[in-house]
Amino acid sequence: MKPKSWFHLYKLLVRMSIKSRMQYKFNFILSSVLAAVIQIAEFLMIAIVLNKFGAIQGWSLYEIGYLFAVISLSKTLYRTFADEVHHLEKYLISGELDQLLTRPMPLLLALMPQNFRIMLGEVLQGGFILCWSLGGMIHAGQVGWNAVAETLWIIFTGAVILFSIGLATSTLGFWTTRTSELQNITEDAARTAAQYPLTLYPKWMSSLLLFVIPVGFVNYVPSLYILRGELGAWVLAATGGVALVCLAASLRFWQFGVTKYQSTGS
Predict the structure, then answer these.
(1) How far is 43 from 164, CA to CA, in rounded Å?
(2) Is residue 46 included in any domain, yes or no?
């Protein structure tokens, strides 16, 4: 099949997945509201601490909110379109991956639309905090309106980086089968750490979050330019370059990992 046919089939699978989920509208609305409330409550805990003790190493509440919102929205974008990449383990254990291998399209493209998620709650939560933090900094004159377009760019590149990290981690499952414990480190813990300025951490840890698990390029590094005018506009291009390198490397690793897949059998 041609790539055009692959993407047509991909869109069809997404549409079918959405239709299936919307059969339970109340469950969708309730889960969206709860997701938004939980995420906002998490940020409120940070806000309470900052309100009492002031800035963290010179980073204001608005700036911390910006870091929090950008990585949250990047994660939401990644998990909306490729959530099942994160859950590859269940396909490896159950043997469901064999069914996807029979489809007339690349395995990754067949996997991504499975159980397609509409993460409305996370979008509302991240969008609210981003608008609040950017609005506060624009009102204070710290940033201009150009920061809005720049922020949309780094949310996109951040989603590509997080997807690449998630894909590389899941690919290890072709050898180990189980990946959930590793995902706790490479995805969950690393992303949580990146909600704060990397200057808070020891040198070895900040280097880890920049060059080994590059979540620092999702929000922290570009924010140095967008919010503080440091480094230079080249940072935005460099962030895009990091995203492309991560994506290319993870896709190549995925292709290699697929060749090592062994079915669970009957």
Answers:
(1) 26
(2) yes
Angle at 100 between CA 96 and CA 101, to 5 degrees: 110
Whether 11 is in a domain gets the answer no
Q: Cβ of 86: how many Cβ atoms within 10 Å?
A: 19
Structure tokens at 57: 């190493």
6 inside domain: no
Q: What does the pLDDT look like over 204-259, one tens digit per residue?
A: 999 999 999 999 999 999 999 999 998 888 999 999 999 999 999 999 999 999 98
Task: Note the pLDDT of residue 184.
Answer: 87
Residue 12 included in any domain: no
Res 135: pLDDT? 92
Q: What is the pLDDT of residues 127-182, one digit of tens each?
A: 888 998 999 999 999 999 999 999 999 999 999 999 999 999 999 999 988 888 89
Domain count, the chain: 1
C-alpha torsion angle, residues 148, 189, 86, 106 (rounded to 10): 70
Alpha-helical runs (H) found in 102-233: 107-111, 120-139, 146-171, 173-176, 180-183, 190-193, 203-207, 220-226
Rounded Cα distance, 210 and 220, in Å: 9
CB-CB contact of 242 with 214 (8 Å): yes
Task: Give me the domain span that covers residue 252.
Answer: 27-258
